[in-house]
UniProtKB/TrEMBL annotation:
Coiled coil: none annotated. This is Tetratrico peptide repeat group 5 domain-containing protein. InterPro entries: TPR-like_helical_dom_sf, TPR_5, TPR_rpt. It comes from Listeria grayi FSL F6-1183. TPR repeats lie at residues 66-99. Residues 33-150 form the Tetratrico peptide repeat group domain. Keywords: TPR repeat. Pfam families: TPR_5.
Length: 163
């Protein structure tokens, strides 16, 4: 019933029910995840953080755990807690190594930490690994080179300037 309300974007209605249920079982991981989801969706990022943290400290389904990692990592990032976001996403990637969305969020954190080269390199790697677009595939070799050599610049020689 709560999940259905959240999926239908009835966040305030869901939150009313969640708050009542949390009074009975404050440590319930699923209820805390739902509270985080509702608060986050309502733009109440700082209110969502402790709920995400409690949810992740308990037992969640695999899908909910992944989404809680994404939600908390993203929330840490948008509230300026870049180091916490980085650490959390590292943990999430260890737990879910085959979930590229975590690496996308991690790249955004690297960008916020002014590690621009690592951020772009990580995103290029993800594009190469997960894109099915034929044009991206056609440039796979060059893109792969640039993931490690983003600052590479071809030096124009005199020979290049003669036609």
């Amino acid at each position: 019933m709560i999940r259905e309300k959240l999926q239908n974007k009835a966040y305030l209605e869901a939150l009313e029910i969640i708050e009542k249920e949390l009074q009975k079982t404050p440590e319930d991981a699923e209820l805390n995840y739902y509270a985080a989801w509702a608060n986050d969706s309502l733009g109440r990022e700082t209110a969502a953080i402790p709920f995400y943290e409690l949810a992740l400290s308990g037992k969640l389904t695999t899908t909910d755990r992944l989404e809680a990692f994404i939600g908390l990592g993203s929330t840490y990032r948008v509230t300026g807690n870049y180091e916490r976001a980085h650490q959390l996403l590292e943990q999430a990637i260890q737990e879910f190594p085959n979930e590229p969305v975590l690496q996308v969020f991690q790249a955004m954190v690297k960008y916020n930490q002014t590690d621009y080269k690592a951020a772009v390199s990580q995103l290029l790697t993800l594009i190469i690994q997960h894109a099915s677009d034929k044009n991206i595939r056609a440039f796979e070799r060059a893109l792969t080179f640039y993931t490690q050599n983003l600052d590479y610049r071809y030096e124009v020689t005199e020979e290049d300037t003669h036609e």
